Amino acid sequence: MAHQPSPAKIMEIGSGFFASKILLTAVNFQLFTILEEKGSLRAKEVRAILKLNCSDRHLYDFLDVLASFGFLNRKGLLETATYSNSIDTATFLDKAKPSYIGGILEMMNNRLYRFWDTLGDGLTTGLAQNEVKEGGEPVFETLYKNPLLLKGFVNAMTGMQVGNFMALAQSFDFSKYKTFLDAGGSAGVLSLLVATHQPHMTCTTLDLPPVEPIANETIQQYQLEDRVKAVSGDFFAKDLPKADVVAMGNILHDWNEENKLKLIKKAYDALPVGGAFIAIEAIIDNERKQNAFGMMMSLNMLIETGDGFDYSFDDFCSWTKQVGFKSTELLSLTGPTSAAIAYK
Ligand SMILES: C[S@@+](CC[C@H](N)C(=O)[O-])C[C@H]1O[C@@H](n2cnc3c(N)ncnc32)[C@H](O)[C@@H]1O
Questions:
Q1: List of E strands, the chain
Q2: Of 60, 78, 173, 299, which is the most buried if we count CB atoms within 10 A?
Q3: Ligand 1 within 6 A of 249 CB?
Q4: Same domain for 45 and 17?
Q5: 148 and 195 in one domain?
Q6: Does residue 1 form part of some domain?
Q7: Would the CB of 157 count as within 6 Å of ligand 1?
């Protein structure tokens, strides 16, 4: 049957920011963390704890729409209603749990939401739309000068990637290898998960100097100081430490093609013959039809960096071949993210 015209999808996507902002606001209020601590709450208790002054109707709207999205469970209606977390929000949005992924949502609320307001300017000018536009420095310099922004960014990165890191640590065949380097490894979580799931592996996480203390803290929390170490360095200025496997999670997409090639070459030079380079990103499908998130992430790189962009597996194969890698494969991780792997 021919597709009948319908405004439904247009309206759903067009008003998508309503839904997004409702969830981001609930995360910023730490609503899910509070609900987890208390078990369940009535609307008037939520009002008191969060010090809200809106009308009862708007409070019910806020909580009930979260329930209709599947983020809260609700028993009763309006005055008699009690609210508790769904299994997803209890697991991933309770700040007290290590499985908390809200860091990325906090950053979306506190930074990206307002920067995306000028996506049109980004497309028109080709320039970044973040702090740089307000006279600030490029993204990493801006974030790393302010300890709160730095911590927020590191938490955001962990939140976004932890499921993928877990999947990679469990599903990639590490049996032929002994040493692992995560370049731009942020808090070091990928190295820690590889060390946890692959007890024969020794791992190094490398990032800019301000990140090292945060990575060291995480390593101590996992009690894996014997097999995971954090080092500081600029991956453009210096050669990468040698390792059998070199990973870069959401690194290549930060940069333009010239810098992507430089980083791939650095990985190549750090590997032995047979070694593996793994890029963990929202790799766009070759036909550019399916992975909408990958294309949106690429536009997010326009907002954040101006010339960084996400790419397809075909792009990855062509760049790694240029640098000298022998073969490639694609390993699906979670949701829109995959590991693009090149073997030397
Ligand atoms: C988008 S984050 C990705 C973090 C992590 N790999 C992940 O998958 O979530 C990019 C990382 O690259 C690091 N970085 C940026 N420029 C760098 C440089 N010149 N040398 C080393 N690390 C750098 C940043 O500090 C940040 O941790």
A1: 41-42, 72-75, 82-85, 179-183, 202-207, 228-232, 245-249, 276-281, 327-332, 338-343
A2: 60
A3: yes
A4: yes
A5: yes
A6: no
A7: yes
Q: What percent of the chain has pLDDT over 90?
A: 87
Per-residue pLDDT tens over the stretch 127-159: 999 988 888 788 788 888 888 888 888 988 888
Distance between Cα 318 and ligand 1 center (Å): 23
Q: Is the same domain home to 108 and 235? A: yes
Task: Tokens for 243, please give them.
Answer: 């390792």
State whether 87 and 107 are in the same domain: no
For residues 70-97, average pLDDT: 96
CATH of the domain at 246: 3.40.50.150
CATH of the domain at 51: 1.10.10.10
Number of domains in the chain: 2
Query: Looking at the domain assignment, is residue 3 inside a domain?
Result: no
Task: For residues 258 and 337, give the distance between their C-alpha atoms in angstroms, rounded to a whole number.
Answer: 23
Closest residue by Cα to atom 11, ligand 1, is 184
Does 207 sit in the ligand 1 pocket, CB within 6 Å? yes
Atom of ligand 1 at shortest range from CA of 164: 8
State whether the beta carbon of 71 lies less than 6 angstroms from ligand 1.
Answer: no
| Predicted pLDDT of residue 1 | 64
Residue 324 has pLDDT above 90, yes or no: yes
pLDDT at site 34: 98
User: Are residue 250 and residue 231 in the same domain, yes or no?
Assistant: yes
pLDDT digits (tens, 9 = 90+) for 152-172: 889 888 888 999 999 999 999
What pLDDT is attached to residue 134? 82
Which residues fall within 8 angstroms of residue 264, CB to CB, at 6 or more apart? 252, 277, 319, 320, 323, 342
How many Å lie between the centroid of ligand 1 and the Cα of residue 154?
Answer: 9
The domain containing residue 247 runs over which residues? 102-343
141 CB within 6 A, ligand 1: no
Q: Hey, which residues does 229 pair with through a beta bridge? A: 204
Same domain (yes/no): 180, 230: yes
pTM of the model: 0.94
Tell me which residue has tokens 């047979």: 274
Q: Answer yes or no: is the C-beta of 281 below 6 A from any ligand 1 atom.
A: no
In short, whether 251's Cβ falls inside 6 Å of ligand 1 is yes
Instruction: Check whether residue 70 and residue 211 sit in a common domain.
Output: no
The amino acid occupying position 228 is: V
